[in-house]
Each structure stands twice: as C-alpha cells, then as structure tokens.
C-alpha cells in the first residue's frame, strides 16, 4: 500500500459490479462496501446530491481503516461503474483548450461557454458505449472531470478547499446532427467517467496533467490541462453563478484537439496523469 509522506493513504475509490465500493490498490480492488452502512439512512425525498460524495470526508477514516483487512479482487476481474452513482447534473464547456476552435478565431470568450448534459447519461468504463441510433456519427472527447464535493451556492466559494472531492477521466460523447447540443450529448452512456475517483488531495495541481485518447491503439487526442483556457476553479465559479452545485455534480473541462468518430467494435483508451486509464468498448 502506498502512503504519502504525511502517512495518509492514497485513495482511489471505485464503484464496481453491483454497487460495491472499492479502494484501488495497485492491481487489486479492496472491497470496503460495509463502510456504506455508515451513511445516514434516507427517507423520501432523498436530499439533493450524491450521498457518498457528500459524506466522503466523514467516511474517509472508516474507509482507510477498513481497507487493510478488506477482501481483495484483481482489478481485471471487476466491472467498473461510474464512481459517482447519483450525479445531480453534468456541466460541460465548449472549446476550452488553447489551440482549438474558439482560440484560433482570436476570440477566446471572457466567460466559459457552459452547457448541461442529462445526469442519466453518466456511465462507467465497464458499461461500454452503446450506439443506439444507427447511421448517426458519434465523436469522442476526452476530458478531465472534477467531481463537486460540497454544496456551492455562489461563485465566491469555488476556490475553497474541499470544493472538489476528486478527479477522474471522462469521455464527453457527442452525436453530430441538428438537435440541441445538450440533447445530442445526453444519450444513455454518453458521459463516461472513471476508471475511479482519485481524491483531490492526490492531485496537487490539476493544471499540468497529460491527457490522451486512443482508438484501437491509434492516438487521436493528446493535450495537457496546462492549456485549459478556463481552469477548474474558474469553471466551477462560473457554473455556481447560474445554479447551486451539489455533491456529486460532474464538471467536464473541455477536450483537446483531435476529436473523431467512433464505430461499433472500437476500443477506446484514455489516460490522464495520476488518474489511471479508462478503457471502453463501443457496442
Ligand atoms: Mn466536451
């Protein structure tokens, strides 16, 4: 088990198989599902936000205590689900890398161009990507994803510690066509996130991470989050000026150049420094 210099365990949290909670430990997943019993019991209507993400700080000592004795399973033998089970919303942004469309036009917007995707589009690596409308072109966009860790009801809070619970890799899947953007990006499984949640304290600086996506072994997208036009705090602050953010809300930060089409049978592999690798099959 790796430890940081201050002695705390590094924490990569995954959701796998039928809603099991795991800690990723090298090639193993340690099943710490019993810790979920410590979440407060919920009655209808459930409060907004993802309960696990919202209570992560309080649960973390229990997770770290449970992991050493937890049953271990090989990572390759589990089906990875979205690390956020119940996201309230997915916030995404248009043209947010230097060198892409908006920047080339010499008109980098002073405000990020945010839009929303349906929360029901969120899925994990093991769920794969279903192309449900035959004949429609569908493109991949690899993106750094930040998961909101606490309620945020104004832009001034966006810089506070603890606002981001953690980071993961995302694919913002996009169908081409005349429909509204939010609709074309909200088909089931069109927000693929994972492979797990890397807690924010493991990612000292989210603004210097290499981002890469390949399809069937051929590299299509490559970038570095140092080239984000608007970084994570600016995006969260902009989003929070429109609406309250809740634990488990998902922020997609935009995609580097190289967006391209996907076909049935393709295998997509994405990687971002410190966050692991996300492998998705197109079905
Ligand atoms: Mn995108």
The helix/strand class is mainly beta
Order of helices and strands: EEEHHEEHEEEEEEHEEEHEEEE
CATH architecture of the largest domain: Alpha-Beta Complex
- Quick one: CATH superfamily of the largest domain? Fumarylacetoacetase-like, C-terminal domain
Please report the distance between the alpha carbons of the first and last residues: 36 Å
> What is bound: which ligands?
manganese (II) ion
Number of DSSP strand runs: 18
Which percent bin holds the helix content? 10-25%
Outline, from the CA principal axes?
globular
Low-confidence stretches: none
Tally of helical runs: 5
As for the number of domains, it is 2
Beta percentage is: 25-35%
Radius of gyration: 18 Å
In CATH, what is the class of the largest domain? Alpha Beta
**Average pLDDT figure:** 93
- CATH topology-level name of the largest domain: Fumarylacetoacetate hydrolase, domain 2
Major sheet summary line: 11 strands, mixed
Could you characterize the architecture of this molecule?
The chain is mostly beta strands and 283 residues long. It is built from five helices and 18 strands. It has helices at residues 51-54, 56-67, 101-104, 181-184, 232-240, and strands at residues 12-16, 20-25, 28-31, 72-74, 90-93, 114-117, 122-123, 138-140, 142-148, 164-172, 174-175, 191-199, 210-215, 218-224, 250-252, 260-261, 267-272, 276-281. Strands 1, 2, 3, 4, 5, 6, 7, 9, 10, 12 and 15 form an eleven-stranded mixed sheet that branches. It has a four-stranded antiparallel sheet with strand order 14-13-17-18, with no helix packed on it. A hairpin with a 3-residue loop joins strand 17 and strand 18. The longest helix is centred in the first third of the chain and has 12 residues, at 56-67. It starts with 11 loop residues before the first strand and ends with a strand. The model has no long low-confidence stretch (mean pLDDT 93). Bound molecules: manganese (II) ion (MN). Manganese (II) ion binds next to loops.
């Amino acid at each position: 088990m790796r430890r940081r210099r201050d002695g705390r365990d590094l924490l990569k949290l995954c959701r796998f198989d039928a809603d099991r909670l795991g800690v990723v430990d090298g090639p193993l997943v340690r099943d710490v599902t019993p810790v979920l019993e410590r979440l407060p019991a919920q009655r209808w209507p459930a409060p907004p936000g993802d309960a696990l993400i919202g209570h992560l700080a309080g649960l973390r000592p229990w997770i770290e205590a449970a992991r050493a004795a937890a049953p271990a399973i090989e990572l390759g033998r589990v089906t990875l689900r979205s690390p956020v089970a119940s996201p309230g919303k997915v916030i995404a942004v248009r043209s947010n890398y230097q060198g892409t469309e908006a920047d080339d036009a010499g008109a980098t917007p002073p405000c990020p161009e945010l839009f929303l995707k349906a929360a029901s589009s969120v899925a994990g690596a093991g769920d794969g990507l279903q192309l449900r409308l035959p004949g429609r072109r569908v493109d991949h966009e690899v993106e750094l994803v930040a998961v909101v860790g606490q309620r945020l009801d104004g832009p001034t809070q966006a810089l506070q510690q603890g606002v981001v619970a953690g980071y993961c890799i995302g694919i913002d899947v996009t169908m081409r066509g005349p429909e509204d953007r939010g609709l074309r990006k909200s088909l089931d499984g069109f927000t693929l996130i994972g492979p797990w949640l890397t807690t924010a304290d493991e990612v000292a600086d989210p603004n210097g991470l290499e981002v890469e996506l390949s399809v069937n072994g051929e590299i299509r997208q490559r970038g570095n989050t140092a080239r984000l036009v608007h970084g994570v705090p600016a995006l969260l602050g902009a989003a929070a000026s429109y609406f309250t953010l809740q634990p488990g809300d998902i922020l997609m930060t935009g995609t580097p150049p190289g967006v391209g089409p996907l076909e049935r049978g393709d295998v997509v592999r994405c990687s971002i420094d410190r966050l692991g690798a996300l492998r998705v099959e197109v079905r």
